[in-house]
Amino acid sequence: MLRRGPLVLDGGLSNQLEAAGERLDGGLWSARLLLDRPEALVAAHRAYYEAGADIAVTGSYQATFEGFARHGVDRRGAAELLRSAVALAREAARTAVPGRRPRWVAASAGPYGAMLADGSEYRGRYGLTVAELERFHRPRLEALAAAAPDVFALETVPDTDEARALVRAVRGLGVPAWLSYNVRGDRTRAGQPLAEAFAVAADADEVVAVGVNCCTPADADAAVALAARVTGKPVVVYPNSGEGWDAVRGVWTGPRRFTARRVDGWLASGARLVGGCCRVGPAAIAETAARVRNATGPLGPR
Hints:
Layout: E1 7-8, H1 13-19, H2 32-36, H3 38-51, E2 55-57, H4 65-69, H5 75-95, E3 104-109, H6 112-116, H7 130-145, E4 151-157, H8 160-169, E5 177-181, E6 183-184, E7 187-188, H9 194-199, E8 207-213, H10 217-231, E9 235-238, E10 244-246, E11 251-253, H11 262-269, E12 271-274, H12 282-296
Parallel strand pairs: 1-12, 2-3, 3-4, 4-5, 5-8, 8-9, 9-12
Antiparallel strand pairs: 6-7, 10-11
Helix pairs in contact: 3-5, 3-12, 5-7, 7-8, 10-11
Binding site for Zn(2+): 214, 277-278
Keywords: Metal-binding, Methyltransferase, Transferase, Zinc
GO molecular function, one term: S-adenosylmethionine-homocysteine S-methyltransferase activity
C-alpha cells in the first residue's frame, strides 16, 4: 500500500455523520450505527472516497465487546458488528464514483478510554497494566482481522503503556498497522515525551507507519519530523480542524486551522499517510488530495 506513494486518508467520521443528520449521543458514539444505521456509515465513507481519499477508516473506533455488552449485544453479535465495520467501508469503496484509483480500508481500534466514554481517552493512565490492556485489545483486533482489512488504525493513543499493549496485541494477526498518538505539544496526552512514545514502535515489524491524530494542526507540524527521525518509518498524520471545544456551552469555538497548505510540510518531513480527524470534512479532504497529488504526481514523489 505505502509503496504506491503518499496516500490520502479520510476526515472525521463523526462530523460527516452529524452533517447527514445522525445523532451520536450515547456510549457507543458512531459505533451505534453498526447496530441500527449501517447504511449511514456506507454513505459517510463513500463521501470521503469521492472527495479523493485513498483510505477510509472504519466506524469501529468505539466498538468493543464491553461497550456492546452494555447495550445487550452478546460476544458473537459484537464480533459480527466489528467485522461489519470493515465490510461497510468495502461497500463504500466499491460503489463510490469515480472508481479509477485503488481504495483501501483501515480498521479503527480506538484506545481503552474510548470504551469508557468518559473522556479518559484524552488522558490515558487508566490504572491498568500493559498486559491488561493487551487482553482488552486483542479480541477486538482478532475480530477485525477476520474481516481482512488492509491495515489497522491504532489511533488516538494517549500514552506509551497503551501503545506497548497495542503493538503486542497485533502480533501474529497478519494485518499491518499504523500507530498514531493523541498529543499536546511535544508530549502524549498522558505527558510522556513524544520521542519516547514513537520509539515504542521503532522495532515492531507489524507497525508500518507511526504518527499523530486528533490533535491540533500545529502540534502535528512538529510531530511528523520527530516520528520519522525516531522510527525511520513512514509517518501518518491526521489532525483535527484546530477549533476548540467549549464543554460548558457545548459548541466549537475559534477558527479552523487545518489547511491543505500544511500538506507540503508534512510530506517533506516524512508523511506518507495524510488526512484529517474531528471536524475535517470532505471539502478539506478534497483540497488535501489535490495538494498531495500535485506534490507527488500520479506515479509517486517527484
